[in-house]
Known about the structure:
The chain is of the alpha+beta class and 423 residues long. The chain has two domains: 65-205, no CATH class; 265-421, Immunoglobulin-like, CATH 2.60.40. The protein has helices at 8-48, 65-68, 72-76, 80-87, 97-103, 111-121, 125-137, 166-170, 207-214, 231-236, 239-242, 247-251, 265-271, 379-390, 398-409, and strands spanning 171-172, 175-178, 199-200, 222-223, 226-227, 272-280, 284-293, 307-316, 327-331, 333-334, 344-345, 353-361, 366-376, 413-421. The strands form five sheets. The chain has a four-stranded antiparallel beta sheet. Strands 1-2-3 form a three-stranded mixed beta sheet. A three-stranded antiparallel beta sheet has the order 6-7-12. The protein is globular.
Amino acid sequence: MRIAISLQPLLNRGLKVLVLLLLSSMAVTAQSADSGKQIGIDRFLDQHWQRPLAPQGTPPGHFTDLERSLSPQACGSCHVPQFQDWSKSLHSKAMGPGLMGQLVEMSPHARGEHQACIRCHAPLAEQADQLVDEISNGSPPLAFNANQDTTNPLDNSNLHRKGLVCAACHVRNNQRFGPARKDGSTPDPSQKLPHDGWVSSDAYQDSQFCAACHQFEPNEFSLNGKLLENTYVEWQQSRYAEEGVSCQDCHMPDRKHQWRGIHDPETVKSGVTIKSELSSSSEQIQGLMTMTNTGTGHRFPTYVTPQVVMMAYQEDARGQLIDGSQRYFVVARRVPLNLSQEIFDTRLAPDETARLEYQQNRRPGATNLVIKVYVEPDKFYEGFYNSMLQSGQMGRGAAMLQQALNDARQSVFTIYEKRLPLP
């Protein structure tokens, strides 16, 4: 008797095993490639951000005067959109009057103290030397003027006043560095390009690049077990890191050199979702406002300098606030001016919610419950600058600190305001 045996089940099973082995092999290969890529990024950044940065040295002899220049205006002669974006960014104002007002009070020989600030605010060695010259000689003029920068792309004087310039991120030893082109291509060595082209690195699209200035090292200053500057770690611990959403995706969309953050109303609005509701009677007013961090890839806000205020109050028919009816909830990491302790930390991790519950007797003449959220980007600095000026110990930097104090007071903006009519 012949027994018919079907080989199809065995073939199917073997095919499934083969597919699983193939997929497993591909996953291991991809994981190995990702690991190798990250090792390359780590090595690049370890070298790229060695502090203090080394001087550029002597430029190649075939470089033109424009190619030798470290001025942002020199870069802007070709990279026009990037320069225009940078010019309006806070990176270009990183050596503003608040910082310069403090630095000119230091000894010109205290380079270590200078580096505590300029390692991020103006990290080039050439900028460090110019800062020493200004402190020593009182030149350029000590009254800070944001429009004092020359438009001459060959003029490298006053470079330290220009903050985080293009070269701080893109030039080492007169060699240019940057990401690959948007289409993924890199320079062709045989092609003659200005300043000998550039060296391409994936590091420029990795969040770790930003950590060089937006993350303290584990042994640096902390309060209540948390580093004072901890933005990169906050991102690492969020779902955004797992989803592959980098710092650059939010702060440099389409590679724009704007780095908008807590000082920009639209950016702040896009990072949170705010809701409000009202339940009231003729005698009692009950309201609720919630604010959820739905779009910020780190704590909101991330640093100790800003604060975000949730506020509710009763308003009369003339649109006037009824005194005594206010209720507040402050979202911030509050520290004293001497950084001696953490007073409180109510900042919102990604997807966390803050609540302001309002419950009060209705005041005579009240017609609306007003619910609003406003942002004070420079709250800590405002108190700090004022304290320094009030101390009476400021000399050469006093005028700059006064300007910084005025700027801080004017930086406040509202991101949400709603009037809920009372029945």
